[in-house]
Amino acid sequence: MTTKSPTHNRWSSNFSFVLAATAAAVGLGNIWKFPYIMGENGGGAFVLVYLIFIFLIGVPVLMAEVLIGRRGRASPGYAVRKLAKESKVNSAWQVTGWLGMFAGFMILSFYAVIAGWALSYMVKAAQGTFFTGISEAEIGNVFGSMVSNANELVLFTTIMIAGTVFVVGKGFKSGLERAVTFLMPMLLLLLILIAVYAAKIGDFGTAAQFIFKPDFANLSSQGILIALGHSFFTLSLASGVMIIYGAYVPRETSIVRTSIWIAIADTIVAVIAGLAIFPIVFGFGLQPGEGPGLIFQTLPIAFSAMPAPSLVATVFFLMLVLAAFTSAISMIEATVAFIEEKFKTSRWTAAIVSGALLWTVSLGTVFSMSGAAWAQIDWVIFGKELPTIFSAIDHIASNILLPIGGLLAALFTGWIMKKHYTQDELNTSPLAYFIWQVCVRYLAPVAIIIIFLQLLGLI
Ligand code: PFF
Ligand code: NA
């Protein structure tokens, strides 16, 4: 059997690439994480700083990764290896791609579990768990008993991973591209519906003020660093995602224009998510700074006080499942393409092998949450306590591998690749190219080194 290289695939249009990359970018980061970190860091001023980071650092690094993917036309490790060879530099630079693929895989191992929470909540909501008049303590118990129940976590994580394997295994056009073409518009529709409903039923004025009115007194230096870290996370940078999606970008597509659109779309969704959540939070007298439990513990309190709790909660968690699912697909794609290339397998085989590996690693997170003794490791890295396997994977991947990967991608395209190759890929005006160069050569590396040292507690 002859297998064509997976990277012969191409997005059907510029729009289809922007849609798929936006579906990859829009996920738990926008709907679960962004609202609560905004809530914890004082709202408007945080949003403003975040926007600056997105456009000065996130977008240039996004362009760098799409460029690497399109020019390398291979899974991340092989793509960077090819480009290092083309520019006649040390092939050790390929670590940029391998690290990204590994980070994406490790992030997916816990992302799939949290996506499983969303699915479990959707089922609970549909069954009427958040009925009118349920007490706050009972809602707290719903969350507590879910995360301590390993069987439940394994069940819902398995469903999410199986869905991912199914879509990716079906193929590029009829699986991945088709899935995002359906799911992304559905996600947007549900999100807008919820935001409109929230504006009607909740306190839109207070929420809008909270999100848009900058109050710098509430923004700490820690908050600024969180904004920078999140600008990487939310755009799926340094995780192999944008390199592999870049590998499918047609030659005529403008990387500069599509990257800007992807960032704008991701940002708009994050803001709409804020506009869907905070009017409810304020309208029902709840606190915006509740942390990671904001949508799993705080929001259900408001749902249970609404006229049709089951319906509203089901729609909300369905929306969250869709957002997480289209990101999960993107995170497994690099590994699947790599297995296809390396072992010349079919896409189905590659998807099933990746899924089985992923499922095995995800058990580390499941049993960290449920409290199994073997998952409690009590590591300490650079003074940071990592009590469980989950906290170790999250910290090492999100806070160490992502910044290093982003730094390497910026340095590789800014300093290492020959200028005429990057010019050829970006194919833009001299001014735009100059601005991009300043960002990837200086701004991004300096900013990343600062967050990195800070997160490690070294400054
Ligand atoms: N960007 C996605 C989100 O905001 O949820 C998910 C994600 C993918 C985060 C890849 C991090 C990552 F490395
Ligand atoms: Na995102």
UniProtKB/TrEMBL annotation:
GO terms for cellular component: membrane. GO terms for molecular function: symporter activity. It is found in: Membrane. SUPFAM superfamilies: SNF-like (SSF161070). Its main location: membrane. Keywords: Membrane, Symport, Transmembrane, Transmembrane helix, Transport. It is a multi-pass membrane protein. It holds the Pfam family SNF. The keyword Endoplasmic reticulum does not apply. The chain crosses the membrane at residues 12-32, 44-68, 89-114, 153-172, 179-199, 219-248, 260-286, 306-339, 351-376, 396-417, 438-457. Signal peptide: none annotated. Belongs to the sodium:neurotransmitter symporter (SNF) (TC 2.A.22) family. PANTHER family: TRANSPORTER (PTHR42948). This is Transporter. It comes from Aliidiomarina taiwanensis.
